[in-house]
Amino acid sequence: MSQAVKVFVPRDAAALAVGADAVAAMLQAECARRGLAVELVRNGSRGMFWLEPLVEVATPHGRVAYGPVAAEDVPGLLDAGLLHGGAHALSLGPTEQIPFLAKQERLTFRRMGVTDPLSLDDYAAHEGWEGLRRALALDGAAIVEQVTQSGLRGRGGAAFPAGIKWKTVLQAGAAQKYVVCNADEGDSGTFSDRMVMEGDPYMLIEGMAIAALAVGATRGYVYIRSEYPHAIAAMREAIARAEAAGFLGANLCGSGRAFHLEVRKAAGSYVCGEETAMLESLEGKRGIVRAKPPLPAVAGLFGQPSVINNVITLASVPLILARGAAFYRDYGMGRSRGTLPFQLAGNVRQGGLVEKAFGLTLRELLHDFGGGTASGRPIKAVQVGGPLGTYVPPSQWDIPLDYEAYAAVGAVLGHGGIVVHDDTADMSRLARYAMEFCAIESCGKCTPCRIGSTRGVEVIDRIRNNQNRAQQVHLLRDLCDTMVHGSLCAMGGMTPYPVLSALNHYPQDFGLETPDQQAA
Q1: Residues 6+ apart with CB under 8 A from 397
Q2: What is the pLDDT of residues 111-131, one digit of tens each?
Q3: What is the phi/psi pair of residue 325, to 5°?
Q4: Is the distance from CB of 198 to CB of 230 less than 8 angstroms?
């Protein structure tokens, strides 16, 4: 009997949403009917969502991709020699040579789409557990030093140096410490955390285990967004398999060190993406923001010292330990070291995930990777950094994507989410939506956020209806200033970012004169 040919069909949520399961079922049924030996691998997504479902076949010359494939395309693909990489209208050639992929620097996402996400053998064959093994040979301070020297900063949005946070927890005296992964990925246009948990879950498990060894923690929790059922299922299964294989549990890799890891399903609250509200939720309380100090690194989960990082931060750690801090630090620019997985969404022709070193520009992302808008119309505005991020106008598209460069113009990179709008977008409506979103999602603990957002919706409505417009614009700016400086957390503190950027860069959408009109 001929050797089975490996065929890959993703089981990532984005691929499932467009029929990947039907494609996989048709492939198996049609190959069985024709007597063709195939080994079907349900891999993660490569992050080229406009090509999903993306079918790949292993050939002697590497993997060849076809997409987007519908179930009804399968018989024709097999007729054309799919199992040998044959020519077909849906053929995209060698996967690694697709320009969207070939131009990336995939460090954290290097296994994404390559391996079977739940296969321990696959993970080990692609540098898995190397970082953990190196960490087991070091003491906590040496592990923290590697993370510090790499320049890794929090990828959840705050960009706080991970090494400093870990050092604080290491030096805190306590009988019990925790590692908490914030996987409550609620920002619009973001999906990199979900892709990691569904497409390479052992990488996150390994990163959390290394963090535990670094600070002396024995328990960890992954707090996953409730709207991510596939990620929750994948993480639970991966944790069970890793524990059975000795990579988690009472005796980590035979070292005598313990690290127990559990999944916690989030409560469907956007504000629980804020670390202290997440801790309240994990403790079984209402998810509202805590006042700081004390910092969670000193008094976090159940009042104990806790490392809290997001998925991408922790998933970046195994490579840093495996290849050394200098390897990771050599990517990026300034104080922004390594890579960030940028997520292209909204009105964009080629939506998906782009992992690049810090320093490329938004213009490169939008055109070289995104291919412009899906509608074919000109791009008008781009929201960078989630629903609390600024709208970046074309005049700022050539600023390097770097934490400090964006902060200098009052913008944020956040979690790397990028949402594209074409020239039909009404920026006054989007500004109103930002205030309304805050009003709905506010935890209600502080007045500037709870009341300010409600008043913000009312003020923007009066501006849009030309009710004392000049006076109301002045009032809106005052209100935004109060929210920025008076809110307890970023929910109220950053909602003014999209509002003011829309008002400043697109005044005509609010019925205001542009600077050119005023000069005339």
Answers
A1: 361, 362, 363, 366, 382
A2: 999 999 999 999 999 999 999
A3: -60, -40
A4: yes
